[in-house]
Design brief:
The chain has 724 residues and is mostly beta strands. It is built from 5 helices and 37 strands. The strands form 6 sheets. The chain has a 22-stranded antiparallel beta barrel. A 5-stranded mixed beta sheet has the order 1-7-8-5-6. InterPro entries: Beta-barrel_TonB (IPR000531), Beta-barrel_TonB_sf (IPR036942), Plug_dom (IPR012910), Plug_dom_sf (IPR037066), TonB-dep_rcpt-like (IPR039426), TonB_sidphr_rcpt (IPR010105).
């Protein structure tokens, strides 16, 4: 049934986009008459290379998140806004590819129920810090950007805005919502890595019902992984959006997302003596005919807004999401030749080493019910001008996960058997049920005094509870309740209209039950806490935004295993991150544009009950990251060329040495190059090619203490995009 649905969806979407592209190809070319150099339009040359209805600009000026009332320039926090133009020009087909455009982000690998998008921001894990239009996007799945308009990366603690987590920062996905401006667009892509991809975006509106609109975004994606044997991704998505009252003071929005994936999951290669095993990139250690990762995401959101006046607005937003995961994948582990599973003593030939196929298998649903009641009020108290945001949030999350144990079968490290039969017999490993609840009032006030000064203060109080039950022996029933306030304060000085200098402080916390899971050990410990100090400056110079920031993050009470009792977890660790970053976004000239920057993070374990850990870097915390994308346009020839460089320095998979050794698992740094060329056939239709990993660099894209996910080989993606 699912395969039939996918085929029917693909046929219908292909017909829709094909018709749009034929119409675009036959459309008159009047839009280009104004782009000729002798028309005196050089100052608007970049706009001439824009798909109709979309501004060609990487520069963003205002956060989309309603809880932030200031412009980006005046917001005392490092925020990277990945605009729709960059997503389109890089032709990103998953969210992680888009996030590689932001310095300070490093990609990590997941395991078990923690699959999907996994990353660190400023050296701290942020897998549980994804938000969608300001509300928690909790599912452990691989997000497709087909319905995303902008991605906001808010760095540093944001607990007063979002609640628990957010030590290094959060990701907020801003979706394509129904609007009064009409849209008809589609993209058809084919790749050398067997990619076949189709997207559509259609918005129709009417002035009936006070201004109503319906928008539909849809996607079908089928792809391999360049240079990796047997890995495969299949998914489809549909995201309708409806709005009414857009021309009035009372507005209703209803949005829905359905994304379903069926992948042959690639779990990478094993570690060998603390380094990635020297094997072929193409090696696939799983069971190609039996491995899978299935995910089904359904998320519905309703938002009612009312403007009481020009200065007072109130809205209520409610969301119900369900997420179902099913996984059976192989983690390749070296057989125990030494004191730890990936340590080989002596100097045996690689051809004599075997890998154990550790099957990870689980299934089960998770749900989220989230309601946010929020208001904004602008008013004066004497000479002070206030922009006050106040709200109350209630969350209810559940997770019911069943895990299975399969026999472990050995295969060769250098030449794994691709056609080995799968051992279908299994036993139940665990059956768990967990529930988390969070209730939280919050306030954020921006106070302007004079022409040059602002003070920002924020407060939130979370009552967070988790209950966990496991019914397969040994049976477990534990619970945890935490009451935790969060604070934020900042001072902003504006020496000129186009610039600001700021100092900010904020804190955050990570409760034991943050992942909707507890153990007898973790239920007894209080939340981890973090403090961040940041000083920075932001300047808008024409259509170019420049930012710089210095920061320090201190994470206290890090959960550690008690060295005297392995069954106990204690709060004994401290991590510290010190760094700075420089970024640029926008136009250097009318035809030359840039996005990205450099980030330096010095993250160390300051204290730990294990002395071998002190002074090491926490997992997935590279010291240097560079993410830079640039484009140059030739309006007279209807051409745009782009190139991007990503650099990640070496990083560790764990701060702890391998058991019984002093060996730290570390992957080397790498640099990758991306290229783009776009030809504007006419004002409605463009042809584009993107080359990923153009130098065919061998690199390690994501780390886990038990395995390493290799980065894909060089590939090219060819696309036709139509827009009216």
């Amino acid at each position: 049934m699912a395969d039939s649905y996918r085929r029917a969806s693909s046929i219908g979407l292909t017909a829709t986009v094909g018709a749009a592209m034929v119409g675009a190809l036959l459309a008159p070319d009047e839009g280009w008459a104004q782009a000729a150099p002798d028309a005196g339009a050089q100052a608007d040359a970049n706009e001439a290379l824009t798909v109709v209805g979309q501004r060609a600009d990487f520069q963003q000026t205002k956060p989309h998140l309603s809880r932030i009332t200031t412009s980006l320039k005046d917001t005392p926090q490092s925020i990277a806004e990945i605009p729709q133009k960059l997503l389109r020009d890089q032709n990103d087909t998953n969210l992680l590819d888009a996030l590689r455009s932001v310095p300070g982000i490093s990609i990590a690998a997941g395991e078990g129920a923690q699959q999907g998008d996994n990353l660190s921001i400023r050296g701290f894990n942020a897998q549980n810090d994804f938000y969608r239009d300001g509300m928690l996007d909790f599912g452990s799945y691989y997000r497709d950007p087909f319905d995303i308009d902008t991605i906001e990366v808010l760095k540093g603690p944001s607990a007063t805005l979002f609640g628990r987590g957010s030590t290094g920062g959060v990701i907020n996905e801003v979706t394509k919502r129904a609007q009064m401006a009409p849209v008809t667009a589609g993209t058809l892509s084919f790749g050398t890595d067997a990619t076949k991809r189709l997207t559509i975006d259609e918005d129709v509106s009417s002035h009936s019902l006070g201004g109503s609109a319906i928008r539909l975004n849809a996607m079908v994606h089928d792809a391999g992984l360049a240079g990796i044997d047997d890995a495969h991704m299949r998914r489809y998505g549909v995201a309708p959006s409806f709005a009414m009252g857009l021309d009035t003071s009372t507005r209703l929005r209803i949005d829905y997302l359905r994304q379903q994936s069926y992948d042959t999951q690639y779990y990478g290669i094993p570690w060998l003596n603390g380094r990635p095993a020297p094997v072929r990139r193409s090696n696939f250690y799983g069971y190609a005919d039996s491995d899978y990762l299935r995910s089904i995401v359904d998320s519905g959101t309703a938002r009612l807004e009312h403007d009481f006046s020009d200065s007072v607005e109130l809205h209520d937003q409610i969301r119900y999401s369900s997420f179902h995961i099913g996984q059976r994948a192989v983690e390749p582990l070296l057989l125990n030749y030494g004191p730890a599973t990936d340590i080989v003593t002596g100097n045996p030939p690689l051809s004599s080493l075997n890998v154990m196929r550790n099957v990870l298998a689980l299934s089960g649903p998770s749900t989220l019910l989230d309601n946010q009641l929020e208001g904004t009020a602008r008013f004066r108290t004497g000479p002070l001008r206030h922009a006050l945001v106040f709200g109350f949030e209630v969350q209810h999350q559940t997770a019911d996960i069943t895990r299975y144990t399969y026999p472990r079968i050995a295969t060769s490290l250098l030449d794994p058997m691709q056609d080995a039969p799968f051992p279908y017999s299994y036993t139940l490993r665990s059956v768990s049920s967990s529930t988390s609840n969070d209730t939280a009032p919050y306030l954020n006030d921006t106070i302007d005094f004079g022409k040059r000064w602002s003070v920002i203060g924020g407060w939130r109080f979370d009552h967070y509870t988790t209950e966990y039950n496991q019914i397969v022996a040994p049976a477990v029933h534990v619970s945890r309740s935490d009451d935790k306030p969060s604070w934020r304060g900042a001072l902003v000085f504006k020496p000129a209209e186009n610039g600001s200098v700021y100092f900010s402080y904020g804190d955050s916390f990570d409760p034991s039950g943050e992942n909707i899971s507890l153990t007898a050990a973790t239920a007894a410990v209080a939340p981890e806490t973090s403090d961040t100090y940041e000083v920075g400056t932001k300047w808008d110079i024409g259509r170019l935004s420049l930012t710089g920031a210095l920061y320090q993050i201190e994470m206290h009470n890090v959960r550690e295993t008690d060295p005297s009792d392995a069954t106990r977890t204690i709060l004994a660790g401290d991590y510290r991150s010190r760094g700075f970053e420089l970024t640029a976004a926008g136009h250097i000239t009318p035809v030359w544009e840039v996005f990205g920057g450099y980030s330096y993070n010095d993250v160390v374990v300051v204290s730990s009950p294990n002395p071998l850990e002190i002074g090491n870097s926490p997992p997935n915390a590279p010291k240097h990251t560079v993410a830079l994308w640039t484009e140059y346009s030739f309006p007279a020839y209807r051409l745009t060329f782009g190139a991007g460089v990503n650099y990640t320095s070496s990083r560790t998979a764990s701060s702890l040495p391998q058991a019984g050794t002093t060996i730290i698992e570390r992957a080397p740094g790498y640099t990758t190059l991306q290229l783009m060329a776009k030809y504007h056939i006419n004002s409605h239709l463009t042809a584009q090619v993107n080359v990923q990993n153009a130098t065919d660099t061998r690199y390690y894209a994501a780390l886990h203490p038990s395995h390493i996910v290799m980065g894909p080989a060089r590939s090219a993606l060819f696309s036709l995009a139509a827009s009216y």
